[in-house]
Design goal:
With 122 residues, this protein is of the alpha+beta class. The chain contains three helices and five strands; from the N terminus they run αβαβββαβ. It has a five-stranded mixed β-sheet with strand order 2-1-3-4-5, covered by helices on one side.
């Protein structure tokens, strides 16, 4: 049990969890887009963030499915709760620059918006 706790603590420290400004979830298929194409965009995301986010303020997670399953790849960015569709490399570059780094969602690429409430009882 203690080993598990130490492992989790080490992972949290390694990934700097607790210091992120934004989190992008990315679905690379297989239902919303061709899986090979989606994987190429995911690899592009990893490369771009490694280069453009050296302080690791942006966390990325590859999601198995974001339940849209059409017009992908699909991306979701928190804390704004901005959903994007048809995210190819060109669209992703704009999302990285304007939203993930710049803080301004890319309206023309959005398919939905659902910011999370600070009090879910409302
Ligand atoms: S497979 Fe991508 S949203 Fe479902």
């Amino acid at each position: 049990m203690s080993d598990d706790k130490d492992f989790v603590k080490a992972k949290i420290a390694k990934h700097k969890i607790g210091s992120y400004g934004r989190h992008i979830f990315f679905c690379a298929g297989p239902s919303c887009c061709d899986e090979d194409d989606g994987q190429k965009v995911w690899e592009h995301l990893k490369g771009e963030l490694a280069e453009k986010d050296p302080e690791k303020k942006i966390f990325r997670t590859k999601a198995a499915c974001l339940r849209i399953c059409k017009s992908g790849p699909i991306a979701l960015v928190y804390p704004e709760g901005t959903w994007y569709g048809n995210v190819g490399k060109k669209q992703l570059d704009k999302i990285i620059e304007q939203h993930l780094i710049g803080g301004e969602p890319v309206e023309e690429l959005m398919i939905a918006v659902n910011p999370l409430a600070s009090d879910s009882k409302d």
